[in-house]
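>> received
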Amino acid sequence: MLSKIDLSKFEKKMMIRQIGYKDIKDIIALQKICFPGMDPWTKDQLESHLEEFPEGQICVEYDGEIIGSCSSLIVNFDEYDDRHTWDDITDEGYITNHNPDGYNLYGIEVMVHPEYRGMKIGNRLYEARKDLAQRLNLKSIIIGGRIPFYHKYEKDMSPREYVEQVISHKLYDPVLSFQLMNGFTLMRINPNYLPDDLASNKYATLMEWNNIDYRAKTKRHYKTAFPVRICVVQYMMKQINSFDEFAKQVEYYTDVASDAGSDFAVFPEIFTTQLMSFLDEKIPSKAIQKLTEYTEQYIQLFTELAVRYNVNIIGGSHFVEEEEGKIYNIAYLFRRDGTIEKQYKIHITPNERKWWGITRGDKVRVFDTDCGRIAIQICYDIEFPELARIATDQGAKIIFTPFCTEDRQGYLRVRYCAQARAVENQIYTVIAGTVGNLPQTENMDIQYAQSAIFAPSDFEFERDGIVGECNPNIEMVIIGDVDLEILRRQRQNGTVRQLKDRRPDIYQISYKE
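>> returned
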């Protein structure tokens, strides 16, 4: 009589799943095995994939080991030149150009461990991609495929002749033949697609699979413009007698921004220190402690104004006590849907340490809004180029910088650095500062500012890279329009392309969260 068989001893489970952060090390190791001699993904690139489009990052796990994977992003393919390169379509491998409203799923890599080829792993990954395209109602899947056997024939035939031979089944290519078997059709052949793909002699076949279940949606369309209107408040610091007086001034400017149809109203750094003018406390550290007691009123005021006036508000910044004895300089984003985000000031000036004992924040954040992704970098933080680059790599298109400076030299440091960040990162930057004086308030007695909106310096943008600027040292607002679609086009085809032309092979920024 046979004893009962323990079937679990024979089980080796295969599953197709979404890649997670814990898999990054294994994915890099797998790529080195699959594509020796080619540069593998970096940890930063894979983390960016998961931040931008986690659904498009898929792997096959067999008996607890990752043996295959594929990576994708969504694009409007009509926006790219037919002769695009792999770097163009992947934004140097970071896929920060991923467009959730696009029409096409673009596959940027498929790999299968050599020891497991013949087990239909590639087919499973391709089917997973097709399922994703159907689920997201995408028009097609496009891939730039390698032709790794072409190097054997390059002396005897052109890439076009080689591809025709493979299509007619007279030659076999492990990638192109596989793609044809999976229902992909040839669109064209791209030269210089992947510089380190020497086996393909840098050529790639542009292939497409059409989703026959695709249903057009009228709300999806090609954007010719993506205007965002910004109202910058150059706020006058003057004696007041109550929080209600402060609230009335703030509401007035929010109303001005709303009447102009602004998407954002931007207030300056620590402009809530105006409340200290009636707190009757001469010792700066104690005055700051008293100021933090107004945090809830401040948050409630701006939350209500953002919703009531239908405008996203960068609420300047405010001193907040979050732990016993620890006070932070925090900038809040009050969205017009009633939700709130916050960014801590990361670099604290010697003045803030000396007079107020402010504690440093430690995280660069990027926020989603109904006008794209934005970042807030408070005053001194804009003078550290690494922060703006990190925010840009995380998808920010606008960096808002509330600032407070007491003299022209300090103001110019903020201005020059904000303009430099706009050029370096091909983004818009916005600076909003305080003017006026608070004679009875220690360490906040004088102010200097000329608030402004800056653009990258190129033909499609405003002359001198200045969208608009206030007159120096007077209370006023400026209202300016920036266009995120122009920004996207310039990143692709501008006179210079700082983001595309970076050299991560010789330098990079390492961000420690």
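>> The CA atoms of residues 229 and 481 lie 4 Å apart.
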